[in-house]
Amino acid sequence: QTHFLSLPLQAKMSRPVQARRLEGIDKNIWVDFVKLAGTYAKVNLGQGFPDFPVPDFLLEALRQALGGNHMLHQYTRAFGHPPLVNVLAQLFGKLLGRELDPMSNVMVTVGAYQALFCCFQAFVDEGDEVIIIEPFFDCYMPMVKMAGGTPVFVPLRPKPPKDGNLMSSADWQLDPAELASKFSERTKAIVVNSPNNPLGKVFSQGELELIAELCVKHDILCISDEVYEWLVYDGRQHIRIASLPGMWDRTVIIGSAGKTFSATGWKVGWTVGPDRLMRHLRTVHQNSIYHCATIGQEAVAQGFQRELKLYGKPDSYFVQLPRELQRKRDMLVQSLVAVGMKPIIPEGTYFLVADISEFKSEVPDVPDSDEPYDYTFTKWMMKNKGLAAIPLSAFFSETSGKNHTNFIRFCFAKEEATLKAAIDILQKWKEEKTSS
Ligand code: PMP
């Protein structure tokens, strides 16, 4: 009998197993709130995904891909399926007014999530600082930390709206001096997310110019998360920071077919940028994911072919989707106002943030708890009203989150019936409030 076989079967490991880079980043708002919403909520306006079907032309493209060339079930080119990188190069070439090489200026990723991950791994070293504008899509912070970097936060500060008006996401602005003060020799990159999740803010030309000027002055990179680029309302324009002077050479644009074609489960994303930067993203990609699923890329390529032909025309999905979502935004705004929440009108995205400070007396105090009010409120609303949302302080750093506990985020990319069910809940709630 060998020595090995004489060891007890239930011998346990005793050494610590967690890599240091995971310290302090184990909490994840989505894991907790998706579970709670599944248990309690009748209507889920929490997590950001459409519950309406993907457009017919995309489904048809997927059907064709499934039943057509059998090679579409095998690996494709590692850095992006050729038909997809070709059409992305054509479209973004047109939008940016520059010739793009599909093979070196575009890379396909597993959703925008992997695109972000590639950027932080490719560019951030131990000790590098990355500027993040608050509130922010929550994964930026742990991803910077995992790469060994230090996130440096700069807030969008709300300005009170004019008498009686509802606040707009445009009322949340950067203070130019404060922003400038965050740039230092250690700064490697800034993350810009316009339109912004969670506020729905669409950064103006002036705001982007301010950021661009600082990027050029301090010679730093810009990671531009533009996953909601097609979802802008009230005639506003999405401006691509990479198109501003001096920015193409230092910017990686990130996009997502999940948001573009209302198919978040497909997890097809992309990056666009100069080869000088893209080559390092390819290094991370080839040493982690390597290939993305072929079928989804083929169908998304067909979807973009269609959109390229219909660009700017009334039948274009990029024209129809925002029009439909703007109407849904306005429906939800009205009922939130009726129940006494103060919505901040988003200029873009499919999220809407609402002020819940007037509801403090409705929600019982949780004794001996240091849970922020927006968390307590959201859980209470799920359990008692059956309506799910997400607490806004989850989109801030720990320090600033403490100052932003009076807001929650709703997603309005939902079927008419889902929104109506949410509105019914709000209506009933309002009646209860007025009769008590
Ligand atoms: N960036 C932002 C701002 C997002 O809101 C999301 C999705 N919620 C992503 C990136 C990730 O996109 P994907 O689902 O394509 O990975």
Automatic annotation (TrEMBL):
<dbReference type="InterPro" id="IPR015424">
    <property type="entry name" value="PyrdxlP-dep_Trfase"/>
</dbReference>
<comment type="similarity">
    <text>Belongs to the class-I pyridoxal-phosphate-dependent aminotransferase family.</text>
</comment>
<dbReference type="InterPro" id="IPR004839">
    <property type="entry name" value="Aminotransferase_I/II_large"/>
</dbReference>
<protein>
    <submittedName>
        <fullName>KAT1 transaminase</fullName>
    </submittedName>
</protein>
<dbReference type="InterPro" id="IPR015421">
    <property type="entry name" value="PyrdxlP-dep_Trfase_major"/>
</dbReference>
<keyword id="KW-0663">Pyridoxal phosphate</keyword>
<dbReference type="InterPro" id="IPR051326">
    <property type="entry name" value="Kynurenine-oxoglutarate_AT"/>
</dbReference>
<feature type="domain" description="Aminotransferase class I/classII large">
    <location>
        <begin position="42"/>
        <end position="425"/>
    </location>
</feature>
<dbReference type="GO" id="GO:0030170">
    <property type="term" value="F:pyridoxal phosphate binding"/>
</dbReference>
<dbReference type="Pfam" id="PF00155">
    <property type="entry name" value="Aminotran_1_2"/>
</dbReference>
<dbReference type="GO" id="GO:0005739">
    <property type="term" value="C:mitochondrion"/>
</dbReference>
<keyword id="KW-0032">Aminotransferase</keyword>
<keyword id="KW-0808">Transferase</keyword>
<dbReference type="InterPro" id="IPR015422">
    <property type="entry name" value="PyrdxlP-dep_Trfase_small"/>
</dbReference>
<dbReference type="GO" id="GO:0047804">
    <property type="term" value="F:cysteine-S-conjugate beta-lyase activity"/>
</dbReference>
<comment type="pathway">
    <text>Amino-acid degradation; L-kynurenine degradation; kynurenate from L-kynurenine: step 1/2.</text>
</comment>
<dbReference type="GO" id="GO:0016212">
    <property type="term" value="F:kynurenine-oxoglutarate transaminase activity"/>
</dbReference>
